[in-house]
Predict the structure.
Amino acid sequence: MSAMLMKNGLFDHSGLTWSIDGVPPQWKKYGLSLTSQANMLGLTGIGGRHHDAAGEPTFKLCVPGLTTIETRISLNEGRIPLSLLSEQALQAVSGLMSVHGRSSGRLVPLGVDYLSVMTAGMTLQAALAVALGQMNGGDLSRVGISPIGCAMLSIGQYLAGATVREDRESFSPGQYDSMLRPPFVSADGVIFELETLDSGPWRRFWEGIGLTAEQADRGWRVFLLRYARAVSPLPDEYMTCIGRLQFQKILEKAKASGISVVPVRHVTDRRSDIDYQYATDLWKFNTRPASGSVRPRHVPTGLPLRGLRVIESCRRIQGPLAGHLLAMLGADVIRIEPPGGDLLRAMPPCEDGCSVRFDALNHLKAVREIDIKTSFGRKEVLEMVRESDVFLHNWAPGKAETMKLDHHHLHDIQPDLVYAQAGGWGAAHVDAPGTDFTVQAWSGVAKAISSTSGTRGGSLFTVLDVLGGVMCSVGISASLLHRSVRGGGVYVMSSLMDTADHLMQITASDSFKGYGLHGVFDTRKGAISIECTTAEQVRELARCLGGTFDRSNVVADRQKVECKLLSRTALEWESILTRKGIAAFEVIEDISDLAKDIQMRTHLITNAYSAVQSPWRFQ
């Protein structure tokens, strides 16, 4: 049977409805993203109440014949009261600002509504998974989700490196010059990313524009490890050498060497792309008619996806994180690795012979070593697929078809399979690897981050890989629920580009400009994040600091704030200002401190390193 393209939402006319209540005004981007994602799936919204100071934000999903599912924001850790919950506050207390600060050169917000979108995806993911669990005979109906837990999960691999028992990493904001790292600048002022996944093109390019072989070698490992460390301190001669060339000459040299060049664009450039006009959804679905076969059902207990089997063949972050989230929800995830294991297992720092960064995303999975390049290996994969519910990969475009492991071939083996592909560019036609930093550059995300951070490019924190992994897992859970509701297999495609587009749509929507008195400030000890979103908060801040503000001179007002804050520590100011209803929180500068903080460490399991626990709690 041929697949049917879903031109509208996956759940159109299914009777599934949703509502959301109690989202505080200063965190409305969370509500906007959750609303947008639910609508993309074809779930029918039935409205909700405005913010209720006595309640918690609650997302309700109603499936005909099932108990209503309630997913509530949980702030039991107490660090951020609901009335002060915001994007900037979450970035400050979770360590995300610190990781971003490695490449931005200072503690500063990311500049996009990142954790609002991520928590929205994690909220929807949990509700869909619980609905699926109920359809399989489970009795779960309530979920608590921690925004701080989601935020800490986003920096999980960096936290692992910072807390391992031996050879732990310590990269502090401002430790490296933020101008001596990608992206690069041509002589005529074009800002651009270089990308290659192989050392050969890298060396040919830099030697071709004037560096010695030794100099080219010296920068390769630094460049390669930017994904893992969120820093890339290149020698000064790299910037000097490339800065002498016009952009057109750089393109010619790059083409000759086999390295890719992607300019850093504004979001308005992205919106003028032909494919953007059609890139309105985070997921692209193909569905198949119900096969009529009856698969054995395992009643889930404790976690909603127990009894489901996932085959994962992924590398790096996006795909492995999606598999990690499905494992956190109870699925049995079997990871396919090449003979000898994934090469990233050897990436330092290591514990017991395995990279802790790698382990942070894969420790919940079983592993099968299979050489999928051989006919015997592919046959083994097909046999595994016969007894599985999900097949997930993030292979390069065309690889699945070449190996005859695409969704057409696998659906012939298992008609009810959910076949998931975590892609890079989606429908965009860009002649470059679709990686985190190239998609940041092309989509406008890098430009948005740079305007806040005072740098020329985006973050070396893997913004889109992490968020793309979340969106991939949401698409898988939605597909599994669709299979239970309507029958038949599903092919679901998500991508870094579609994720970036959604992130920018939410960030740009009804942006709050504030009164100018918000940001990160130094104190006598430590840094503090402060947000004043109302005139009353501005007046209250002035009273707490013992002065007045001239609203017509924002620069002078900020200077007053900076001077007054130096009289106390960040923790002292946090205690004073939060009691007055001002969102003011000490910024985590060393992410290893998260494991020592009595409130934050409740989200961690610490053995050889600190691993982030599931941000969900099910009842």
Notes: Residues 15 and 64 are 7 Å apart (CA to CA). The chain is about 40% helix and 15% strand.
